[in-house]
Amino acid sequence: MSNPIWKRFVALGVLACLATLGFACNFTSQGDYFGSNEPPKLNVFRYVTGDEPQSLDPPMSLGQPEARIYMALYEGLVEYNPKNLSPIPALAERWEVNNDSSEFTFHLRQTGRFSNGDPIDANDFVYTFRRAISPQLASTNASLAYYIKYAQAFNEKKVFVRDPGSNQFLLAKDFEETETPEPLSSKPGGTNENPPSQAEAKPDADLAFHQLMHSPTRLTLPGTEKARTKLLASNAKLKAAVEGKELVPVKAEDIGVEAVDKYVLRVSLAQPAPFFLGLLAHQLFRVVSRKNIEQYGDHWTEPGHIVTSGAFRLKEWTPYNRLIVERDPMYWDAATVRLDEIHFYPMADNPSIMNLYKVGEIDAVLNHTVPNAWLDVVRNKKDYMDQKEAAIDYLQINVTQPPMNDVRVRKAFNFAIDKNAWAAWRKIVKPLTAFTPEGIFPGYPQPKGDDFNPERGRQLLGEAGYPVTQNSDGSYSCPKFPVKEVEYIYNTQESNKAMAEWMQAQWKQNLGITISLRNMESKTFLEARAKLDYKGFSRGGWSADYMDPFTFLSVFYTGGDSGTGWQDTKYISMLDQANRMLDPQKRYELLAQAEKYLIDAQPIIPIDTASVNWVKKPYVKGMFPNPGSLFPWKFVYIERDRSKWDVGTPSLAE
Amino acid sequence: MLRFIIKRLLVTIPTILVVITITWGLVRLAPGNFYSGEKKLPAAIEKNIREKYGLDKPWYQQYGRTMWGILRHLDFGTSLKYQGQSVNTIIRRSLPVSAGVGILAYLLALIVGIPIGSFAALKQNSRWDYGSMALTMLGISIPNFVLGPILVLIFSLSLYWLPPSRWDGFLSRSIILPVITLSAVYMSYIARLTRAGMLEVLRSDYIRTARAKGLSEKDVVIRHALRGGLMPVISYTGPALAFLLTGTVVIEKIFALPGLGNYFIQASLNRDEPLVIGIVAFIAITLLLMNLLVDIAYAFLDPRVRYQ
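^ inputs. structure came back:
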């Protein structure tokens, strides 16, 4: 058609495209900061914490997005240090730990208040702990509390065994094949305890309970008839001992939490756990109001009903839109709280979140939000948070099937990946050869795994019966390797895909083996991995629940939990032995030995230590890019004096 | 007419039940559970959860319980993912947002699309005709997940006029970009449908009669031609409106709107069975009702349909 109108439209189209391009260039904004840096008019902090929270009931969600909301609404015995996440006093103003870290005594401050004005005392914590662990609540997090004496048995609905004649309970130690020493918390008497101070001194409120805690651990059996019969059938000694005895269900009252006094709480553990204190800032242990929950049942978290214990209280909650919390005048430390309100916006789409940030509608974003393609621009800005995260990326290997059941083959695939090149390409991560994130746990002598060495990899494959030959053009091939028996699965996500393709290319280049990739919908992937319903490799990632190497090493501690099929009793006993160490440095050394043992067995291929990767406006102060991206909100404030703004990543040094 | 409506309504009920049953089955077939996460749960905890939500019961009991709740009280149960929130509440809360944005977008599409289409038909083969039809072709071919970000890029990130996402209610600036983005495709489609319908009608005998009677061109177009010319638009309106009312996943995701579409996609990804069933049933009902309304509207607009 020769109609001139067409030409005009073409011209218009070209103009429009140019305009868009012009905007796009404009978009790669100049200036020191990414987008607007005008502080909000009101004393309000606006934040995207991630997708819609599952619940405002703290034990009911595992997620980090929710954890940050719970940190505004609820307080625990301890709080995270904003810079390094070590425990700092919160509702407990001080505490004592016995010699082997198996018993903790907390002295609560008497000024603690719920948002409705009710005082918070030790009994509220006893209720909170018992509720969190109860099988009826069915919290997905409950296993974090299994270190508490009889907590696991209570959560698993187990039973004690009592002799009706003598009223004595059967003891666990009489039926153990290998003897494990009892922790000090189980030793009789109170010699290792820290008695309440003079002012608080009172006889133990619950003497029978105290005796239960300080007696050797009782035997527990499965609560269901079926599981019990199965267990007894395999153990004749046990069967004979249980014959004619009474079964007594483990109750909430049996777990190792005790209100010694109105403001003294004692927690007895089933094993020494030096990291337990750090774990207590977790949402599972943040205090909730019994009165409130019993009054409203399942609906207690609704606005108008909810009673909270933190620095902020709920003001408004419209799901998928916003959740507003306001300063709580009842909070014991209300004078420290500097923000009037925090607005949490539930969002999951990273570009949308970054857009909001750029135009200044929000003041900070959650971790892992800057898209890969934006990094070149955003990483050079002074509001980019560049710090290592207590999280790792790795590949899991299904070790139950050939050829990956051969450790030489697993090692060959590890040797063939140039992790330094990967980290350089990914820009913000750090290469990793071990199973704990690097440089996160001060003083931990992290072991070193194998470095990139494709020559050694090809040699190992040859030893395993799959010789690698070099072609005339310099490339490699490994014709004998059963490529049909190995694949790489990952859940659909841009960054996972990039990683999968990168690994695939490395193996092809260095071993001459092309592994097929398969992406899967998220839940389908998790199911396949958990059930070992895959061949070869699967994407893996782990982030810290608390600040101790054990949070990573314990992935292979509870059997079958790892998605690899690798189980090793020696590894487990190495960890046990380490945790029994009274000297923290000695414990770290033993943990490091266990970690070395793990990476030598290579059920996983470590890839990198992750990066926090988020941005905050320079006027947001008191918010630090700590390795867990968890922020005690009472320290956060908006600074209006430009000379005091953060320029670049704020230091994490104390 | 009344008999026709009642008959159609009666057919709807078994259809909905079949839809619910199939959805129930499909959610179960999908691998994974609402509680499965990156960190695998210990077996005992998984067992506690299954007992709490009745998942340890045989399938027919679970199916019976679901259906009983729906039939007895129209109660779709409680979301598994969003603890303590009932499915009915979630739908009641998120529907107004989706429906509001959808209706506004469709109104905008009608207001702009029909005049453009009619005008193009009346001036067939003129530069306006070609121009507007080229534009509408562009409108149809640019998907909203492209158009949305482009509009955001221009109006939010460069000009700082409008917020790039989030919801502040109907009477706020935050509604402008989602409505425009959503309506673009419908606007273009309606313009093209109107043009085609009008062209056909304008050539028909009764228009010639109307003109022969000496009616003014305005009366011919508005009273006679437009009525017939809009038939394709009407039949398109039913399914389009049903789709718009129940939320559009893409728009709600891009602009972070608290609508039904957002919940729908999340519910399926989360394996949140009660919520998926509730939303699917709701969409099915809306779709069937909209089609019924279209049939009724047809009867009013076109005497031929009425007398059949």
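The radius of gyration of chain A is 28 Å. Chain A touches chain B through 64 residues (CB under 8 Å).
thumbs up if we can close this ticket
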